[in-house]
Specification:
The protein has 522 residues and is α+β, with helices and mostly antiparallel strands. The protein is built from 18 helices and 27 strands. Strand 12 and strand 13 form a beta hairpin.
């Protein structure tokens, strides 16, 4: 074994995905053998190459207003075919249940009448928008893209941590990670049959076209971005380029007579489907924030008139609400008449007096999360909090019990990660991406593995300084398969000029802050 792994040991109480009590696990045997053939210094050099490659290509993420290369670790995360089959089935089931739930709460409301979910839980969610009540998408799909966050618990079982069906981000890093790893470790990648990820933009484009308004046979699809100052702008530009569609900003669009068009040098061109990467509150100043410069007034009118589809739909955030998360097992049984294929993490609803009383006595043992938060913002890990922090948390919970849930501390699984030239265990999660065309749900093989880089850290979000790993889903015969042909990278995007408009830049910053509180950033 390479010197890099000679002293490697997992984290107590956490499931290590590479090394178990009996040695190296099956999924990683061939990977570690191939890495062991490389000189230790060579592995370190290639790890540095990954960092420089991302910096040169502009694969960055905004952290505290500073653009940094997105950290990619040189050790991949490997998932066997049978393990992935279980994950894939569970993600598809979850997406189908969420679609049924959203259709119901913005429609007939059977879930309230049958007392599966209290009406007040939905209507008090900050992401429930009454303006969308009664709106039925052309093909019935509200979640064209979903990101379902998973963790592996202490025994290695995958569990759902949360759902993201507003504007889930991170898929561009999945695609970029794969290209970088094939370039940095050809000796290792060539020895494995790894399911590809490059087909994702084709599936996304097909789902967007399938969502076009009735009677439109050749729809115009665009990607709507807040602009170059958004932390995920790299992703917006990459997806637009790979799908071969226009990347637009709100000022490029015009709404008139219940329709939306894009400004071009030849005049106005009708737009039928918008893949939006802007939060609900900034989309339509006629319906939400009147001062928004990021969206376009009249989008909601065009949607209600049946002339425009917005993907993902406005109001999806009610399904992201962490309080709704606690009802998901019941919703799966109610809508699908199935048992959940993926277990959820045990959760206390602090709006319920009995749950609240129990949690208040155990604040120093549990993880407390704001129901509309994301990106790791606002989470308090009780065992690591000070007495003053717990006292402040107690006051916030009592002031707004609807706004909080509690969960046990889940020791996320660990995978070897290169830290200062040595392999150390670091906690990871997994965000598989699902694309719903209405006819089928496609789950991207692998998804985004996020890594908490500080020792012992359990918050893996990129916005908190985390990194990533290339996630390999092996085919049934995963080792010694044919060497896959490398696909050529798409042509470079045409650089876009800086906006140079202070109000727009300020609102892009506000959107970032809004996402930190209730969006779905990577």
């Amino acid at each position: 074994m390479s010197l890099l792994f000679r002293d490697y040991a997992g984290t107590p109480k956490a499931f290590d995905e590479v090394v178990g009590a009996e040695g190296v696990r099956m999924a990683y045997g061939s990977v570690l053998r191939q890495l062991a053939k490389l000189d230790t210094d060579e592995v370190r050099i290639r790890a540095e190459y990954l960092k420089s490659t991302y910096l040169d290509q502009g694969v960055t993420f905004d952290i505290g207003g500073e653009e940094r290369p997105f950290p990619l670790d040189i050790v991949p995360r490997v998932i066997l075919a049978d393990e992935w089959a279980e994950v894939e089935a569970g993600v598809k089931q979850r997406v189908r249940a969420i679609e049924a739930f959203l259709a119901d709460v913005y429609g007939e409301g059977r879930v309230f009448r049958d007392r599966v979910v209290p009406r007040r839980v939905v209507v008090t969610s900050p992401h429930y928008h009454r303006v969308m009540h009664g709106v039925v998408p052309p093909n019935g799909v509200r979640c064209q893209v979903a990101g379902i966050d998973l963790v592996r618990d202490e025994v290695g079982r995958f569990r759902v941590l949360e759902d993201n069906v507003r504007v889930p981000s991170g898929v561009s890093y999945v695609i970029s990670n794969r290209r970088a790893m094939f370039s940095a470790l050809p000796e290792v990648t060539s020895r494995h049959r790894i399911r590809p990820v490059e087909q994702y933009p084709l599936h996304l484009l097909a789902a967007l076209r399938a969502a076009a308004p009735s009677g439109v046979s050749d729809p115009t699809v665009v990607v709507l971005t807040p602009g170059v100052h958004n932390s995920a702008y790299f992703e917006h530009a990459l997806l637009a380029r790979m799908m071969g569609v226009e990347l637009v900003e709100g000022r490029d669009l015009v709404a008139h007579n219940g329709r939306v068009s894009i400004r071009t040098t030849q005049g106005l061109k009708p737009v039928h489907v918008i893949y939006r990467r802007i939060d609900d509150e900034f989309l339509d100043p006629a319906q939400f924030r009147a001062d928004s410069l990021l969206g376009c007034a009249g989008l909601v009118t065009a949607i209600r008139a049946g002339n425009l589809t917005l993907a993902n739909a406005i109001g999806n955030g009610v399904a992201d609400d962490k309080l709704i998360y606690t009802y998901m097992p019941d919703l799966i049984r109610y809508y699908l008449n199935e048992e959940p294929a993926l277990a959820s993490v045990d959760t206390w609803r602090l709006e319920e007096p009995a749950h609240r009383e129990e949690v208040m006595d155990r604040l120093d043992e549990l993880v407390l999360k704001p129901v509309d938060g994301s990106g790791g913002k606002g989470i308090v890990i009780g065992p690591r909090a000070t007495a003053r922090e717990l006292a402040a948390l107690r006051a916030r919970i009592l002031a707004d019990p609807r706004g909080w849930i509690a969960q046990p501390v889940v020791q996320l699984s660990t995978v070897p990660t290169m830290i200062d030239g040595q392999m150390m265990p670091r906690h990871v999660d997994l965000r598989p991406f699902a694309v719903n065309s209405g006819d089928a749900v496609y789950v991207l093989p692998g998804g985004l593995t996020r890594v908490a880089l500080p020792e012992g850290e359990l918050i893996v979000n990129s916005s908190q300084g985390g990194g990533s790993k290339d996630t390999w889903v092996l085919a049934a015969e995963g080792v010694r398969g044919r060497k896959r042909r490398r696909t050529a990278p798409p042509p470079e995007a045409v650089p876009l000029g800086a906006l140079g408009e202070e109000p727009v830049q300020r609102q892009q910053t506000q959107q970032q802050q809004q996402q930190a509180r209730g969006g779905a950033p990577c």
